[in-house]
Write a structure and sequence with these properties.
Chain B: This is Peptide maturation system protein. The complex is a heterodimer. By secondary structure, chain A is α/β, with parallel strands linked by helices. Chain A has 16 helices and 16 strands. Chain A has a ten-stranded mixed β-sheet with strand order 10-9-8-7-6-5-12-13-14-15, covered by helices on one side. Chain A has a four-stranded mixed β-sheet with strand order 1-2-3-16. In chain A, helix 4 (about 130-140) runs parallel beside helix 5 (about 165-175). Chain A is globular. In chain A, about 40% of the residues are buried. Chain B is of the alpha/beta class. Chain B folds into two domains: about 5-130, NAD(P)-binding Rossmann-like Domain (Rossmann fold), CATH 3.40.50.720; about 135-370, Rossmann fold, CATH 3.40.50.300. Chain B has eleven helices and 15 strands. Classes of the chains: A alpha/beta, B alpha/beta. The interface of A and B includes residues 93, 141, 143 and 148 of A.
Chain lengths: ~475, ~375
């Protein structure tokens, strides 16, 4: 006989006791006694149905079950909902292509994916031909009929080493593909800006992401010129000043990519980004040094973590009206935005988990962030290893390799049993990159990330509920309700 | 008289139903389909626009070259948005300067209508604006005391859908083709504003009028149908209902299905074709939908159509607008097998055979009613 164990996750905050009901994807605030009763049942592996039906807890539990909560239903088979329509989606819904215009870079950053510290290609003199770039742009347009707006991105190496090619690509796109909203973007190290380049980027409203890690003493630790090995901060800083002076309005749209090396002093970074008026209107994207494909482990310092968490705490104080926004660090605002997206904007409520579905995490490879290397090879995005056979999902001249794409899309299949039983199924952040050992997708490698995903999610649940306890509203507040009784 | 050679701009799946039934464009021959390069149709068969089989006519992005081949430039509605001032108006000017007549079926703002009209006059070329005929705009106000509905004595077929982009216009043209070929006299109101071009009536513009009381609209619609019935003495009346029947959720309201409700109050239908977006439905879905239509709108669904357009729930929710995915229509053919045992049949109008079966099913339904008519 099947056990009637509710598929739930129990957690508590200083202000409340909660049940996360995986089937309905709802969080229920409950009483301490009910919480403890459910913990007891869980810890002693007692079926929820094994009750007299007389005590007050059982009555409450029955009431919740009557509302469709506490179901023991679980997914029967891991298969991505987009699997059956994969070919259809990739035929008409590609949203962007990122062109690797060169594999060369004028910098040699310590943590760079192409620095030798990762299972990935190294820097090389390979550059993209205009013919290949044109084919990539043509491919995007002919595979995006159901998308109103597409993006052509330029990536490297350092893309501005190939500025002439970029200009030709932009002009080709605009001359040939009117009638569709096309945006352009670029991730650059910010060392090669000239007046001509800035004029061009501004004229075409490029979304520019500049890599900048903090003040000189932090930025220069990792971000160095290839020739001479000097730090790049002074050059970037000077370029930013010229940029802001020449195009003050356009400069407000520039985003900064801040890689946080947790060995560094957070306060120092924080002060730099929050006090320098050059960043007043800018958006900062923070990320940790990538662990995927890394040959070594990066350590975090307690000092960094404590200071970072304190800034997050201040952010939350602001959200509950206890601290002025001026005191909130720009380096942590992404924490709240991610929480809002995950819990409020994108959360779907269901009656139950479907029999066949996939944990969250993977995107449709090729549809969201198609990346094309200098030779015309396709990858799901720019963050995967170009040395990985698994991730090479096609070629601009031959089209997509659907068999490979299916494997990447359904990466949960390799850890099916544990995924089906995981309470964080709907909030998982793992995609195939976390399982890629260059030769194939490894269940062992993927599983190593699971505890961290669950721990992060547990914290996110607690932060979300604590903010609600203090009266914060996430606009769309469905799914959080107090059970009466 | 020789057919006028027509250039269609901007071409996309919005025009494909007309292209597939171009015999209804009496007096016109479509010689060029021009689409902006960014729409991804350049050099491809025009049937790729709705992924429902080739038509034999290719799409070009070269407006100037195509202009040489035509007598008339027809500016049409498109599913995709196109900046009128940036892309369309300059093409109208170029065409007029090259001595081509201009016909516009897309809805124009008053100032654009005036500009185009003036330009055509100056260039000495003909101009026709075929979007909602004038006589549909003017109806006297009916006081509540005088509200009454006529009985409609001709069999009526409704074509409606769960939302926009459910192949409703293709169904309407397909039905028209079948009924006419079987020798029936058809009166028809279509979901679009330029159906007169195709030989039938456009959905009356007053139904979209924000200043008219809703009750008046219901009465006017009924009176319009009665007038058409009296004037045309048809064997059947086909009415296409624009939009959907209900909100999808709190953010995607589908205009609350208000038009479907008003039409359903204006007159009863003898049969109805209900079209859905593609999804993997179970049989209970259709049963539930039939009940919903029956109790909310008061008529029975005669058959279902599954369109080859899928509603993209994830991206629609994220971007707060309706986003769709067009599927290859052969994919729908494969899926129809799942519903082969359903009491109410399910068709794929984009497949010619299935579309024929759909029309035959409706004709046979109406014939059954006719056989048991109470007098």
């Amino acid at each position: 006989m099947e056990r009637d164990t509710p598929f739930i996750h129990l957690f508590k905050t200083p202000g409340g006791y909660y049940i996360y009901d995986i089937n309905t994807n709802r969080i229920i605030k409950t009483q301490e006694s009910v919480y403890n009763y459910l913990c007891l049942k869980r810890d002693n592996e007692i079926d929820i149905g094994e009750s007299s039906g007389n005590n007050e807890y059982d009555i409450l539990i029955e009431k919740m079950k009557g509302k469709g909560l506490l179901s023991s239903n679980k997914v029967k088979e891991i298969i991505h909902p987009e699997d059956s329509l994969l070919e259809q989606n990739l035929a008409s819904k590609i949203r962007m292509i990122t062109l690797q215009v060169t594999q060369q870079c004028n910098l040699r950053c310590e943590y760079c994916a192409y620095s030798g510290g990762y299972l990935n290609r190294g820097h090389a003199n390979a550059r993209m031909s205009f013919e290949t770039a044109k084919n990539g742009i043509d491919f995007l347009i002919s595979h995006s009929k159901d998308v109103d707006m597409v993006n052509v991105g330029f990536y490297g190496g350092e893309p501005l080493l190939e500025f002439e090619l970029i200009k030709k690509c932009v002009n080709y796109t605009l001359d040939n593909y009117g009638g569709k909203k096309i945006t352009f973007g670029m991730t650059t190290n910010g060392t090669l800006f000239t007046k001509e380049i800035l004029d061009f980027l501004s004229m075409h409203d490029f979304l520019i992401i500049i890599s900048l890690d903090g003040p000189k003493e932090i930025h220069d630790v990792n971000r160095k010129f290839a020739v001479g090995g000097c730090g790049t901060f002074d050059k970037v800083n000077k370029n930013l000043e010229i940029f802001r002076e020449s195009y003050p309005e356009y400069f407000k749209k520039v985003r900064f990519n801040v890689v946080m090396d947790r060995k560094n002093d957070f306060s120092c970074m924080n002060e730099f980004f929050n006090s320098d008026d050059i960043f007043t209107d800018s958006t900062l994207n923070t990320s940790d040094i990538s662990v995927n494909y890394s040959k070594k482990q990066y350590q975090s310092s307690d000092n960094f973590d404590i200071k970072f968490k304190y800034e997050v705490f201040k952010l939350y104080l602001n959200k509950v009206g206890k601290l002025d926004k001026r005191n909130v660090s720009k380096l942590v605002t992404g924490t709240y935005n991610r929480m809002k997206t995950s819990f409020s904007k994108e959360r779907l409520y269901t009656k139950k988990l479907p029999d066949k579905t996939h944990h969250s995490g993977p995107c449709v490879p090729g549809a969201q962030r198609l990346f094309m290397d200098v030779n015309g090879n396709f990858y799901p995005c720019e963050r995967v290893s170009e040395s990985s056979e698994v991730m090479r999902i096609g070629h601009v001249d031959m089209g997509f390799d659907y068999e490979k794409i299916r494997k990447i899309l359904n990466v949960g299949k390799i850890t099916e049993k544990s995924c089906i039983n995981c309470w964080a199924f709907r909030f998982c952040t793992l995609c195939a990159a976390s399982a890629d050992d260059i030769e194939g997708l490894s269940a062992e490698m993927k599983s190593k990330h699971c505890n961290a995903v669950r721990a992060t999610q547990e914290e996110a649940f607690k932060d979300y509920c604590t903010l609600m306890e203090f009266g914060h509203s996430f606009e769309d507040n469905n799914g959080y309700y107090v059970l009466e009784g | 008289m020789e057919n006028k050679k027509v250039l269609i701009y901007p071409y996309d799946s919005g025009f494909t139903p007309i292209l597939r039934h171009r015999q209804f464009l009496v007096g016109y021959e479509i010689v060029s389909l021009v689409s902006p390069g960014g729409w991804g149709l350049k050099g491809r068969d025009s049937g790729d626009a709705d992924k429902s089989g080739h038509t034999g006519l290719n799409v070009t992005a070269d407006f100037d070259e195509a202009l040489e081949l035509c007598d008339i430039v027809m500016i049409v509605d498109s599913e995709k948005h196109l900046d009128f001032q940036k892309y369309i108006m300059p093409k109208v000017f170029t065409a007029a300067e090259h001595g081509k007549d201009i016909t516009v079926t897309a809805q124009l703002r008053d100032e654009d209508l005036k500009t185009i009209s003036q330009k055509c006059k100056e260039a000495g070329v003909g101009f026709k604006y075929l979007n909602y005929p004038e006589n549909h705009k003017k109806f006297p106000t009916i006081t509540v005391e005088n509200e009454f509905l006529y009985n409609i004595n001709t069999p009526v077929v409704f074509v409606l859908g769960i939302g926009e982009r459910t192949s409703k216009f293709e169904i309407q043209l397909s039905l028209r083709e079948k009924f006419l070929s079987e020798g029936y006299k058809v009166s028809q109101i279509g979901t679009r504003g330029y159906c007169e071009l195709l030989g039938f009536h456009s959905f009356p513009e007053f139904m979209f009028n924000g200043t008219l009381p809703e009750t008046n609209k219901i009465v006017f619609f009924n009176h319009l149908i009665k007038k058409i019935e009296n004037d045309e003495q048809p064997d059947v009346i086909i009415i296409g209902i624009p939009g959907g029947i209900m909100p999808f959720n709190n953010n995607l309201t589908n205009r609350f299905g208000i038009l479907a409700y008003e039409v359903s109050q204006a007159l009863p239908s003898d049969s109805a074709i209900f079209s859905c977006h593609y999804a993997e439905y179970d049989n209970n879905y259709f049963k539930g939908l039939s009940d919903l239509v029956k109790y909310r709108l008061g008529f029975e669904v005669g058959c279902y159509n599954i369109s080859n357009v899928m509603f993209d729930w994830v991206n629609s929710k994220q971007e707060n607008k309706n986003i769709y995915t067009t599927l290859d229509s052969t994919y729908i053919d494969e899926k129809l097998n799942l519903y082969s045992k359903m009491e109410i049949p399910v068709f794929n109008v984009q497949n010619t055979d299935s579309a024929g079966n759909m029309s035959e099913h409706i004709i046979s339904k109406l014939a059954d009613y006719g056989n048991a008519q109470c007098i």
